[in-house]
């Protein structure tokens, strides 16, 4: 079982499909976050919080070439984002020693951080920070990109 920063082929395909459909980079990155949540749930590794699992997914997305903007946060977080973007340009194989170290550290973490309740709490807290207008705009944007089901 290898952790590393290599996303599964299916995840990359789904993200590319989103890009072809003209969906936003955050939607493309969502596929990587989804994969990461799944890894924590199935016990591949753990995470200390839902935020950590999300951060790992976003890091993988940047390394896979998704054009995500740098986050608003500490200088260290922004530096990590630019580091991930540079790694995407290089396309080098991740260091096996670093991958093993990362995996070993994450194995010690819990798996409840990816539970439905934990993710729901995280989503509610995040949305509460945003204003009504921002929530309305994102819902409108989502409605425009949503595929319509054919009614025969």
Question: Any chance you could write out the topology, listing elements then pairs?
Answer:
Elements: H1 9-20, H2 25-42, H3 50-63, H4 75-90, H5 96-107, H6 116-129, H7 132-145
| Number of structurally distinct domains | 1
The helix-strand sequence is HHHHHHH
Number of strands: 0
Note the overall shape: globular
Helix/strand/pairing category: mainly alpha
Biggest sheet: strands, sense, closure?
Answer: none
Number of helical regions: 7
Helix content class:
55-70%
Please give the alpha-carbon distance between the first and last residues.
46 Å
Radius of gyration: 16 Å
Query: If you average the pLDDT, what whole number results?
Result: 87
Uncertain regions spanning at least 5 consecutive residues: none
Proportion in β-strands: under 5%
């Amino acid at each position: 079982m290898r952790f590393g920063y290599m996303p599964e082929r299916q995840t990359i395909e789904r993200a590319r499909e989103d890009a072809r459909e003209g969906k936003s980079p955050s939607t493309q990155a969502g596929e990587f976050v989804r994969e990461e949540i799944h890894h924590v749930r199935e016990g591949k590794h753990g995470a200390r919080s839902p935020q950590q699992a999300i951060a790992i997914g976003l890091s993988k997305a940047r390394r896979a070439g998704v054009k995500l903007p740098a986050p608003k946060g500490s200088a260290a977080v922004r530096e990590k984002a630019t580091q991930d973007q540079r790694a995407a340009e290089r396309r080098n194989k991740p260091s096996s020693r670093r991958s093993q170290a990362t995996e070993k550290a994450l194995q010690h973490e819990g798996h409840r951080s990816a539970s439905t309740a934990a993710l729901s709490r995280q989503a509610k807290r995040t949305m509460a920070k945003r204003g009504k207008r921002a929530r309305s705009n994102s819902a409108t944007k989502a409605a425009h990109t949503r595929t319509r089901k054919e009614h025969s």
